[in-house]
Amino acid sequence: MRLLEAVPEQRRGECWWLVLRDRTLVAGDEGGGVMLLSEIHLTRPVGRALWLLRLSPVIDALDRVLARSRKRLSPLVPEGPAPRRYP
Fold first, then answer.
1. pLDDT confidence of residue 10
2. Would you say residue 80 lies in a domain?
3. Which of 9, 17, 31, 36 has minimal Cβ neighbours within 10 Å of its Cβ?
4. pLDDT tens-digit series, residues 1-25
5. pLDDT of 25-51, one tens digit each?
6. Is residue 84 part of a domain?
7. 3-state secondary structure of 36
8. Residue 25 phi/psi, 5° resolution?
9. Residue 39 maps to a domain
């Protein structure tokens, strides 16, 4: 939780948070989706295109819709610990 020290405790559970390499915090519902796509090597061109087209609010809205649909999506992505990778 040291990475989220700058975030007020009541805001920590509101959404997911992205912590960049320089320790900049980006809220998942305030541009985090596009920023995450921009940070991942394979999706970097998509993230940059979304940023240039100023579609971050659209991605944030999609994230909120998916978050509200979590119960219906749970059979596809069950709650709990992630599968372990083989060494």
1. 83
2. no
3. 9
4. 588 888 888 888 888 889 888 888 9
5. 999 889 999 999 999 999 999 999 999
6. no
7. helix
8. -100, 135
9. yes
- Position 79 pLDDT exceeds 90: no
* CA distance readout (Å), 18 to 3, 51, 74, 76, 80: 10, 16, 23, 23, 20
Tokens of 3: 């990475």
Residue 81 has pLDDT above 80, yes or no: no
Q: How many distinct structural domains can be found in the chain? A: 1
- Look up residue 28 and give its DSSP letter: I
Q: How far from the centroid of its chain's Cα atoms is residue 73's Cα? A: 17
Are 32 and 26 in contact by the 8 Å Cβ rule? The answer is yes
Domain span holding position 11:
2-67
- Evaluate whether residue 42 is within a structural domain: yes
